[in-house]
Amino acid sequence: MNRLAQTALLFLLGATLLHAGLTDLYLRYVKAGLRPLVLLAGVALIATAAATLWYERRHSAARQQHHHEPRISWLLALPVLALILVAPPALGSYSAAHTGTALTKPFGFPDLPAGGPLRLGVADYAGRAVYDDGRSLRDRELRITGFVTLDRTGAPYLVRMGLNCCAADAQPVKIALTGNVPPVLSPDTWLEITGRYTPRRTKDPVNDGPIPYLDVTRARPVPAPADPYDETWNN
């Protein structure tokens, strides 16, 4: 590929990163805290493209020959265009069902605000229920949002995928549901669950990791959040 084509691809890739970083698209690939690096990378690539174009125009007159590579090399631009035009879905129930829970013991359990209902993340509830025996959760009305996944027996779990860095290393944290669970649940449906702590637990069928139950009193479908991943479990 000649220098002009290289410049075009650098510019397209830089513009793609800027587009992703200035919208919520980047959340499909990396954790929220990496947004400044995504934007910086986009600016650097566009600046490199501009410098390459300037260098090419300045020195093209001195060259006697200009070699062109096969036009098929322009197909390298297709992945870049795909990133611009097609946003990949966040990892969902299929990944969760085939990956064991990644719940780990937190460093501590900060005090929870008074009043109710108390909103918690999936990982926060699971960590307190398993490793603090639910001491801070007892007699509290809780609201937790996540997506549904089903195991091989059809048992429902409420799940959020957590990131260490990017979507490639996403792992699930799961809560098993009991009580007033809707009779029909579709995988990948996002639910806001209202319920209470129960000491009941089970083991993940994939890796035998601990999964706490939540006693459901109400469940309602909600739209998927702008950031579908949960980073609290690895903080």
Automatic annotation (TrEMBL):
Highest rank taxon of the organism: Bacteria
Name of the protein in question: TIGR03943 family protein
Signal peptide limits: none
Keywords: Membrane, Transmembrane, Transmembrane helix
DUF1980 domain residues: 131-229
Species the sequence originates in: Streptomyces coeruleofuscus
Region ranges (Disordered): 201-235
Annotated TM spans: 36-55, 75-97
